[in-house]
Specification:
homodimer, alpha/beta, Urease, subunit C, domain 1, TIM Barrel, 8-stranded mixed sheet, 8-stranded parallel sheet, 16 strands, globular
């Protein structure tokens, strides 16, 4: 493979322009005045590491197909019933739809994806298989979470299927509102953490439970993460409670999560609370972000562009200053990489050459305007628009 | 002027495709099988009336210039001080910047703009003049609100300047947090409504004051609108309080506003509360929307695209169903037109031929995806991309 030189760009985090030399899919050098057989001039453009989609639901997507008017009523129960009733009719999960979405994500510079795949007695492991097939077809790096969308304890047969998913190589085990949905937080969490521990899997738990209930469940998650030594491999997704509790409880939980190695993934969807990112980062908590659903039976929104998603995260956090807006971009890059446990991620020599070139004068501008990408390179290979 | 026929489009609100015949800047016919000298084929595309930007701050914009990192601290007082300190240095207000933004707005299909222009002893009427000049230079329909950004009673000399603005032909008089900022809600509102009444001006009041305080101020506004017979000419912008009060107070105020003819304009910015649009519309209250600031010293966000802004309004309202999402589009079209008092607005025969053609299968899809416009026609004239 010929060496490629991206010349004259401004790698995010460096104070001055630098050339990036790419060899064998990795960054072989970064600095001024490098040379190579093939040179791509990106003068003055911003260079980001490959974007990380840390929370989505590929298996549910209707992306690339015709517009499907949302048909559920305005309740959670209504959305669940609507999903179960219509997914078969609409051909969900669909390898074609998932592949279409993955290709769009890649065109925006997303290099890594964590997706929560429904696993339940109705759909079995068909979602897991469809996502695996789409990942293979597109060559995208996709990490699946076996996700009990309809409960574990309240949906007999699910626990066994989750274990089967882990046996088949799924990297992470999910959970869902251990109190609010599954009605027995201790048994729910013990079951999830036990599976993670036995199969060497990561944990990523949907926590919509709000206020003091959600805060208490965060404590339970912290305790189990510590007890089982799973620090660095546990993520709490959404964590709405964080935005609804008093500042001192926020502080205490942020410290506990940082100490235990529990990350937070936010999607900043609709009007739901966004966790206090600045406070979490100041405490040392890893913060990642993602789209949540994209064009599916749960809602029609989402583009697949992680720079646009970072805009939503920054906007909903009322981040106006450049350094604050950069926290949202950090969540869509380094934060996501840490939550997903990605090795060799970044813009340093030796890192995987996943590079996104953006016509923006600063990282904050890239988030706010999320302009068309100038160039996307994954594993050293320049991608087609 | 040659007749133009837009053929085969799907005008929003009609059940079947229809041709639109445009003559002398107006819609001369709408229905199947029309003919004209010049035909533009828009087969299957959605046709919307010209979009209405009902709340922005053109005079403050830095649009089209280099990225300016936000330099205020996180307080309202900090943002005000920063604005006053830096607007001169950055050449605000700038005819060039305002014109650049108006051109972008037009390229997205915005036909009408209401903008709140700072009027205070520091800037005098320079903002009003700059916006007027930019409107003339671009040929855009811009309605100005003389806006006391830094208070009226608390900022001596402002009241006289507001009156001067109205004398010079500015169409509307603004107000700002009569209690929270200006500290004397009765005198503030009496002054604003008296000026409106004497000069035949419309009223558009920024109301960020929250909870029961903001709700009480809404009552004061309703009372004055009725007393002075200004129904249909009064708008409350933002009205955060609506999202913070109990449902029965919401109901009572919505009924009062509908009866008095007081409209609401929302921008759905950051994480600030969005008024309950569905409830307001059900009660018969006119709802409009706009960007608020676009790329200015108050914050770096905003694109000028009213379909994208409608997406924010729908998203923050947790609208998922097509008919709900359409409420946001209604705010960006008919609702804005009613709030601004625009004559001849719509898609009926005789209406001004301000037409936006969008590659979307439905109004909801147009909002969610806000794709590049296929064609923008203003006053019967097709605009350049």
């Amino acid at each position: 493979m010929t060496d490629v030189l991206l010349r004259g760009g401004r790698p995010w985090g460096l104070d001055s322009p630098a050339d990036i030399l790419v060899r064998d899919g990795r960054i072989a050098g970064i600095g001024p005045g490098l040379t190579a057989g093939r040179v791509v001039d990106i003068e003055g453009r911003l260079v980001l590491p490959g974007l990380v989609e840390a929370h989505c639901h590929l298996d549910k997507t209707l992306y690339g197909g015709p517009w499907v008017p949302h048909s559920a009523d305005d309740t959670l129960a209504g959305r669940i019933a609507n999903d179960l009733a219509r997914r078969g009719e609409l051909g969900v999960p669909s390898v074609e739809r998932v592949s279409a979405l993955l290709r769009t994500m890649r065109s925006y510079g997303t290099a890594h994806v964590r997706t929560h795949t429904d696993v339940d007695p109705g759909v079995g492991l068909r979602g897991v298989e469809a996502v695996m097939e789409a990942a293979e077809a597109t060559g995208m790096d996709v990490q699946q979470v076996a996700f009990p969308q309809h409960g574990i304890l309240t949906n007999p047969g699910t626990a066994e299927l989750l274990e089967e998913a882990l046996k088949s190589g799924v990297a992470a085990i999910g959970g869902l509102d251990p109190a609010g949905v599954d009605r027995d937080p201790l048994r729910h969490l013990d079951l999830v953490f036990d599976l993670a521990s036995r199969y060497g899997a990561s944990v990523d738990i949907h926590l919509h439970d709000g206020g003091t209930l959600g805060a208490w469940e965060l404590e339970l998650i912290i305790e189990r993460t510590k007890a089982l030594g799973l620090g660095g491999r546990v993520t709490v997704s959404h964590a709405y409670a964080f935005g609804q509790i008093d500042a001192s409880t926020q502080d205490r939980l942020a410290e506990g999560m940082a100490e235990a190695g529990v990350a937070v993934a936010t999607a900043a969807v609709y009007s739901f609370p966004v966790p206090p990112i600045k406070k979490l980062r100041a405490a040392g908590v890893v913060v990642a972000c993602g789209h949540d659903g994209i064009r599916d039976l749960w809602g029609p929104y989402g583009s697949g562009d992680m720079l646009e998603r970072a805009m939503h995260v920054a906007y909903r956090s009322t981040f106006r200053r450049d350094e604050d807006i950069e926290l949202a971009l950090e969540a869509a890059t380094y934060g996501g990489a840490r939550a997903l446990g990605l090795p060799g991620y970044g813009l340093a020599e030796g890192d995987r050459a996943d590079l996104v070139v953006v016509p923006a004068g600063s990282a904050a501008e890239a988030v706010v305007t999320h302009p068309p990408r100038t160039l996307v390179m994954l594993g050293g290979v320049v991608q087609d628009g």
